[in-house]
């Protein structure tokens, strides 16, 4: 850190004016201010560096945007106080992306910069070698990467990507294919051509898995540690900044990270890969709430970096990319998916056995599902059982009227400690305050009877343990997630997304309580259910090797048929058409404006929106939502703006101007603007 004394200050001879963006966190001050650069800081004060300036009498951090010979400000300029670090972390490419994200998501550049650039650690900065010269693209024909021979179109994509063409592609992972290994091989193919690769995944578990595969593919040992780095919040601020610098200085050639890694300013970007875009972890919980998939797409457009979107399923948003021609599919050879997929059986009323078992309420496992599990265990294969919730019995209902069972003290949900074969749920206690409930009585009908609303992993494991004596039963989910299971008789009860990989694949998978996923009051409930089902079923052996999947859903429903036919692409295309018909994202954009009723009324009165924009509401804020930092707001409401894609830029500009004006008036009422929130209401 370099500083100067006021008495010794002399303006730099060359470009003495520095335009600085202070990190003030106030919308109406989200702009550059001019400062004089002392001669003593002239060499360190380069565009992109972190600096400290005096603003309104106090020292604040900021970024130096550019240097110039003169200022438009008519008065005297304050001095640049310090150069915190000579490292130019805010590159011109990153600055353009930050400005685009701030405009599109109606936010401040200071907020986006906090997402994009990790905090500085001086020791880490000194430990990373100086930037290495660009390697340049290796000439020569592109070879088919190992394991990709059944996807011949990948050669054309790699040829375009390494040739400087802004190629964009979509890859749906075939069943049984190790997506981490496949992406690692693809990344290494681009790396060997002299370019860097950025791989973005939802969570730490995926980061660890993909990083290990990448390090093994590039050669393992020291080469793996030098060429591959992982970026995520779990590694700690110092290690994260050190690895981020290794990527920014060009030493790391393959970068694996979670959502904030999408901003990493690589000097030689060759490919961005985003896997499993339907995961809610890609939605940034901090302002301005961008979605990682959309940031990656905007970055691809802005600087021409090739982009690959991979997933075991297909979201309507990606289906729109394909439909519009913005991205193209990397398709497998005909017949490959059917050859690798397990046989899927969904519940149907046409089968008397299934109908009797399920309708009678005596079991959650119809005879066909039990038979599948027994056949898998008989051939020494593990069985995967997916249930929507962890715990024992997360939800209890009145046995007569199905009203949720609530605590008489705090109105929290009642939980059962165990299930008695005669008396049903026993050892009742509140899930919020912990108070025991010795004498439950329904507030709606007065009944004392209870029934399970949703059965969790613990209760399911207990039931299966009695049905399959001698077979080991394990759970995965919550605080304990299994990574792999051996190829031996076992029953693995897992929550969605926590399924471990089985050596040689599972012999069978039972997807239970589908109604708990499909019945959620959410636009994306069916989409998420299919994503979880495909993810679990893809871990099962092919049908030719005996792999079977049972789905407890109506076989006639489109989503069940998508799994039976293994056609998530077709379902996404139909879902996209249905949403376009009723005016839901991604066919249109939905802007949610949340705040007190008085603030929303002022917004509706002052905004000058195009006639094509439809205003919906105001309505109550959806359950579970709150205004960050403003818990005291009474009855917050939400207004939805239905915006055609062509008008998004104009509407964002209008909203941004309104937010800046409110900030300049020092209006204390909190207002939050979110573009395409995952949970609309």
UniProtKB/TrEMBL annotation:
<feature type="binding site">
    <location>
        <position position="433"/>
    </location>
    <ligand>
        <name>Zn(2+) 2</name>
    </ligand>
</feature>
<keyword id="KW-0067">ATP-binding</keyword>
<comment type="subunit">
    <text>Component of the replication restart primosome.</text>
</comment>
<dbReference type="InterPro" id="IPR042115">
    <property type="entry name" value="PriA_3primeBD_sf"/>
</dbReference>
<dbReference type="GO" id="GO:0006270">
    <property type="term" value="P:DNA replication initiation"/>
</dbReference>
<dbReference type="GO" id="GO:0005524">
    <property type="term" value="F:ATP binding"/>
</dbReference>
<feature type="binding site">
    <location>
        <position position="407"/>
    </location>
    <ligand>
        <name>Zn(2+) 2</name>
    </ligand>
</feature>
<comment type="function">
    <text>Initiates the restart of stalled replication forks, which reloads the replicative helicase on sites other than the origin of replication. Recognizes and binds to abandoned replication forks and remodels them to uncover a helicase loading site. Promotes assembly of the primosome at these replication forks.</text>
</comment>
<feature type="binding site">
    <location>
        <position position="401"/>
    </location>
    <ligand>
        <name>Zn(2+) 1</name>
    </ligand>
</feature>
<feature type="domain" description="Primosomal protein N' 3' DNA-binding">
    <location>
        <begin position="24"/>
        <end position="118"/>
    </location>
</feature>
<feature type="binding site">
    <location>
        <position position="410"/>
    </location>
    <ligand>
        <name>Zn(2+) 2</name>
    </ligand>
</feature>
<dbReference type="Pfam" id="PF17764">
    <property type="entry name" value="PriA_3primeBD"/>
</dbReference>
<dbReference type="GO" id="GO:1990077">
    <property type="term" value="C:primosome complex"/>
</dbReference>
<dbReference type="GO" id="GO:0008270">
    <property type="term" value="F:zinc ion binding"/>
</dbReference>
<feature type="region of interest" description="Disordered">
    <location>
        <begin position="123"/>
        <end position="142"/>
    </location>
</feature>
<dbReference type="GO" id="GO:0006310">
    <property type="term" value="P:DNA recombination"/>
</dbReference>
<dbReference type="GO" id="GO:0006269">
    <property type="term" value="P:DNA replication, synthesis of primer"/>
</dbReference>
<dbReference type="GO" id="GO:0003677">
    <property type="term" value="F:DNA binding"/>
</dbReference>
<keyword id="KW-0547">Nucleotide-binding</keyword>
<dbReference type="GO" id="GO:0006302">
    <property type="term" value="P:double-strand break repair"/>
</dbReference>
<keyword id="KW-0639">Primosome</keyword>
<keyword id="KW-0238">DNA-binding</keyword>
<dbReference type="GO" id="GO:0043138">
    <property type="term" value="F:3'-5' DNA helicase activity"/>
</dbReference>
<dbReference type="InterPro" id="IPR005259">
    <property type="entry name" value="PriA"/>
</dbReference>
<dbReference type="InterPro" id="IPR027417">
    <property type="entry name" value="P-loop_NTPase"/>
</dbReference>
<feature type="binding site">
    <location>
        <position position="398"/>
    </location>
    <ligand>
        <name>Zn(2+) 1</name>
    </ligand>
</feature>
<keyword id="KW-0862">Zinc</keyword>
<feature type="binding site">
    <location>
        <position position="430"/>
    </location>
    <ligand>
        <name>Zn(2+) 2</name>
    </ligand>
</feature>
<dbReference type="InterPro" id="IPR041222">
    <property type="entry name" value="PriA_3primeBD"/>
</dbReference>
<protein>
    <recommendedName>
        <fullName>Probable replication restart protein PriA</fullName>
    </recommendedName>
</protein>
<keyword id="KW-0235">DNA replication</keyword>
<feature type="binding site">
    <location>
        <position position="442"/>
    </location>
    <ligand>
        <name>Zn(2+) 1</name>
    </ligand>
</feature>
<feature type="binding site">
    <location>
        <position position="445"/>
    </location>
    <ligand>
        <name>Zn(2+) 1</name>
    </ligand>
</feature>
<comment type="similarity">
    <text>Belongs to the helicase family. PriA subfamily.</text>
</comment>
<keyword id="KW-0479">Metal-binding</keyword>
């Amino acid at each position: 850190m370099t500083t100067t004394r006021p008495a010794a200050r002399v303006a730099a001879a060359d470009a003495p004016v520095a335009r600085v963006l202070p990190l003030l966190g106030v919308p109406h001050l989200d702009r550059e201010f001019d400062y004089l650069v002392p001669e003593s800081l002239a060499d360190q004060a380069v565009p992109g560096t972190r600096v400290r300036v005096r603003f309104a009498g106090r020292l604040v951090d900021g970024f130096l945007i550019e240097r110039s010979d003169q200022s438009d400000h008519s008065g005297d300029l304050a001095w640049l106080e310090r150069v915190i670090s000579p490292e130019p972390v805010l590159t011109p490419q990153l600055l353009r992306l930050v400005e685009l994200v701030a405009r599109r998501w109606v936010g401040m550049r200071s907020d986006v910069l906090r997402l994009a650039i990790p905090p500085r650690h001086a020791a880490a900065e000194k430990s990373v070698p100086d930037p290495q010269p660009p390697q340049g693209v290796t000439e020569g024909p592109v070879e088919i990467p190992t394991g990709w021979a059944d996807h011949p179109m990948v050669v054309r994509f790699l040829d375009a990507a390494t040739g400087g063409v802004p190629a964009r592609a979509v890859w749906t992972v075939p069943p049984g294919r190790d997506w981490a290994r496949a992406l690692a091989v693809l990344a290494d193919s681009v790396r060997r051509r002299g370019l860097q690769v950025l791989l973005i995944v939802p969570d730490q578990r995926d980061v660890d898995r993909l990083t290990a595969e990448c390090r093994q593919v590039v050669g393992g040992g020291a080469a793996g540690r030098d060429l591959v780095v992982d970026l995520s919040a779990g590694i700690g601020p110092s290690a994260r900044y050190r690895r981020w610098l290794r990527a920014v200085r060009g030493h790391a050639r393959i970068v694996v990270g979670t959502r904030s890694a999408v901003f990493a300013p690589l000097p030689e970007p060759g490919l961005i890969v985003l896997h499993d875009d339907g995961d809610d972890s890609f939605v940034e919980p901090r302002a301005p709430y961008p979605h990682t998939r959309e940031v990656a797409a905007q970055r691809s457009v802005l600087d021409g970096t090739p982009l690959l979107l991979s997933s075991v399923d297909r979201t309507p948003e990606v289906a729109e990319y394909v439909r519009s021609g913005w991205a193209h599919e990397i398709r497998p050879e005909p017949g490959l998916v059917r050859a690798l997929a397990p046989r899927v059986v969904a519940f149907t009323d046409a089968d008397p056995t299934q109908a009797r078992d399920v309708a009678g309420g005596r079991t959650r496992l119809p005879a066909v599902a039990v038979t599948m599990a027994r056949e898998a265990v008989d051939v020494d294969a593990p069985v995967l059982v997916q249930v929507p919730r962890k715990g024992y019995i997360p939800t209890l209902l009145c046995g007569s009227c199905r009203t949720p069972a609530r605590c008489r003290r705090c109105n929290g949900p009642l939980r059962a400690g165990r299930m008695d074969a005669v008396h049903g749920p026993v050892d009742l206690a509140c899930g919020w305050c912990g108070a025991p409930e010795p004498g439950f009585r329904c507030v709606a009908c007065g009944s004392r009877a209870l029934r399970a609303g949703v059965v969790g992993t613990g209760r399911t494991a207990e039931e299966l343990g009695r049905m399959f004596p001698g077979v080991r039963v394990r759970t995965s989910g919550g605080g304990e997630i299994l990574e792999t299971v051996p190829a031996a008789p076992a029953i693995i009860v897992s929550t969605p997304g926590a399924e471990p990989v089985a050596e040689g694949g599972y012999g069978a998978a039972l997807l239970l309580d589908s109604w708990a996923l499909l019945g959620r009051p959410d636009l994306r409930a069916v989409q998420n259910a299919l994503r979880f089902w495909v993810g679990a079923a893809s871990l099962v052996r092919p049908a030719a090797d005996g792999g079977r999947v049972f789905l407890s859903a109506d076989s006639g429903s489109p989503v069940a048929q998508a799994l039976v036919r293994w056609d998530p692409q077709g379902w996404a295309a139909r879902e996209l058409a249905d949403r376009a018909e009723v005016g839901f994202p991604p066919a249109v954009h939905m802007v949610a404006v949340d705040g007190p009723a008085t603030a929303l009324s002022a917004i509706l009165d002052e905004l000058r929106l195009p006639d094509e924009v439809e205003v919906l509401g105001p309505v109550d804020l959806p359950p579970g939502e709150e205004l960050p930092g403003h818990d005291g707001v009474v009855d917050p409401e939400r207004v939805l703006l239905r915006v055609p894609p062509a008008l998004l830029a104009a509407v964002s500009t209008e909203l941004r101007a309104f937010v800046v004006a409110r900030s300049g008036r020092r209006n204390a009422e909190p207002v939050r603007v979110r573009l395409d929130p995952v949970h609309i209401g």
